[in-house]
Design goal:
Oligomer: single chain
Number of strands: 7
CATH superfamily: Spore Coat Polysaccharide Biosynthesis Protein SpsA, Chain A
Strand order of the largest sheet: 3-2-1-4-6-5-7
Distance between the termini: 35 Å
Order of helices and strands: EHEHEHEHEHEHEH
């Protein structure tokens, strides 16, 4: 691995963002000398931006892309994947449920694989979220004709395996990257990783309007 981007979406994560960024820097520097930490701050209204600026002033290799207004998870996620400029991109959330140290479980597979997905095998979420995630990943598996257990999880992917443009304007971005990788015969693997309970904030992934946007993009992808 010659270079690594760790890319993080953030929205109102003042309680977790500093620890996540510091741990990402520590993990990244121990893996590769050429790293960047890219944070897409999607119009946070709390202290997230000030914390990021403080870390930047300390000399951490942090680049901040600030959205003046909240654009939503879809546009942010597209920027998370298309914004980085290094050879490999590691996408991780800013909520602290996955420790950046889990990256070390994925790194050994970079010699053989292009798309390395972290599988939250023992996911620490409520039953509804786990059922929704299982059902969605099963649906994506049927479309891809390749089993994927946790398509919306953290992923380590070669930059040249990420589409330059997306059909998706929602969280379907994750699935679109996976489907694109399958379509282009990329080497894909899922590796079990640890998952922690969320201590701060509230996840928005199963809100009705979020789900509708995902399935609308899924329909558009199928009929393209």
């Amino acid at each position: 691995m010659n270079s690594l981007s760790i890319s993080i979406p953030a929205y109102n994560e003042e309680f977790t963002i500093e620890q996540v960024v510091r741990e990402c820097c520590e993990a990244g520097k121990s893996i590769c000398p050429d790293i960047e930490i890219l944070v897409i701050n999607d119009g946070s209204r709390d202290n997230t931006q000030n914390i990021l600026l403080k870390l930047q002033q300390e000399g951490l290799p942090v680049t901040i892309n600030l959205h003046p207004e909240n654009l939503g998870f879809g546009p942010t996620l597209k920027e998370v994947f298309t914004g980085p400029g290094k050879e490999w991109v590691f996408m991780i959330s800013s909520d602290g449920q996955i420790n950046p140290q889990e990256l070390f479980k994925l790194i050994p597979y970079t010699k053989e694989f292009d798309y390395i997905l972290g599988w939250r095998k023992n996911r620490q979420d409520n039953l509804f979220r786990k059922f929704a995630a299982y059902s969605y990943s099963l649906l994506i598996s049927m479309i891809a004709r390749k089993r994927v257990h946790d398509v919306d999880s953290v992923v380590l992917v070669r930059r040249n395996s990420i589409p330059e443009s997306f059909i998706a304007n929602s969280a379907f971005v994750h699935a679109e990257i996976f489907l694109n990788a399958v379509k282009n015969n990329k080497n894909i693997i899922e590796i079990p990783i640890a998952h922690n309970s969320r201590l701060h904030g509230k996840a928005s992934g199963v809100k009705f309007k979020v789900v509708i946007k995902v399935f609308y993009d899924l329909f558009r992808y199928i009929i393209k």
